[in-house]
Write a structure and sequence with these properties.
- By secondary structure, this protein is an alpha+beta fold.
- It has a single domain, classed as GMP Synthetase, Chain A, domain 3, CATH 3.30.300.20.
- It has a 3-stranded mixed sheet with strand order 1-2-3, with helices on both faces.
- It is globular.
């Protein structure tokens, strides 16, 4: 059974997503991280951890996922400084296959 997200959880999801997008564009020094698109953030009910879904070119996925997870401490520290939360959730980055799958389907449909 799917659990309804509370208004607070939805708000925190969006705040974290927006801030991570800004951090990736402005604060990261690695040029490979400039192509990362944050697609969704889902925090746990108690706001202690968050799953961050990202999309990137499929060929770079195996390189980018470990980079993001290794830099999760940097992102968490930056989030704690910029967001007004009692506890900043720990972050785990998960590759989101949906955008790439959608693009492949669009390509196949355009060839018909």
């Amino acid at each position: 059974m799917l659990q309804q997200l509370s208004f607070r959880s939805e708000r925190v999801n969006e705040l974290i997503r927006r801030e991570l997008v800004l951090l990736l564009k402005k604060e990261t020094k690695d040029p490979r991280l400039q192509t990362v698109v944050i697609t969704d953030v889902i925090v746990t009910r108690d706001l202690t951890s968050a799953k961050v879904f990202f999309s990137v070119d499929e060929s770079l996925q195996k390189v980018i996922a470990p980079l993001l997870n290794k830099a999760s401490g940097f992102f968490r520290t930056s989030l704690s400084q910029s967001l007004d939360l009692r506890h900043t959730p720990s972050l785990s980055f998960i590759y989101d296959k949906a955008p790439n799958t959608g693009a492949k389907i669009d390509d196949l449909l355009s060839k018909l």
